[in-house]
Every structure is written in structure tokens, then in C-alpha cells.
What does this fold into?
Amino acid sequence: MTAKKTVAASVAMLKVLESWGIGHVYGYPGGSFNSTMAALDLQKDHIQYIQVRHEQVGALAAAADAKLTGKIGVAFGSAGPGATNLLTGLYDAREDHAPVLALVGQTPSKVMNYNFF
It folds into this structure.
């Protein structure tokens, strides 16, 4: 019997993005995205991480990228306020019919509603 090989969910997510032809993601790191940041470091030869100063900028950059290339633009933000900060860029993409994928982190359920931020 062969042992099953496990893959971290964040690494699997990046492999799916790579299979879609996505070469980079825009984002702002946060506590709810630590595993994805680690996966981005492991997969840096396949997907480039472009750190922005604010989630809104990441979403706007992903929208601009999608408009210019026709490929899916990808932006991520942390849970809570980081997610709402993506909305302006997502609305911009929507209005121009640009394909953008927004990824949002989530805090572990054991710390939800305990002033995690």
C-alpha cells in the first residue's frame, strides 16, 4: 500500500491558479493569509506575488491586469476589513467586464468574534 501524498490547501490553490495561466497575484499580507504567503514563497518560481500597500490597490491592479491581458486578474486580502477594501477594484472590473478573482482569508473559527483584529 502506498502512502498518500498530502498537499497543503494553499499550495493546491496556487497550482490551480497556475493551471489557469495565472502568473502573478496582487495582495496585502495579513494574519488570515499566513498559509498562502508561505505557499507563495514555495511556488515563487511559478506564481509571482506582487505586494501592494493596500487591498484596494491590489484589486485595482488585478482589474487593470485583466483589462490589458484578457487573463484573470487575481487579488487577495485578509479577512474582515481587508475583504471590504477589495470592493472598489472589483466594482471597477465588473463595470468593464474584466475577469477578476478575489481571494479572502478567514480567521480560524476558534478565534472568531474575539476581537482578532
The two ends are 45 Å apart (CA to CA).
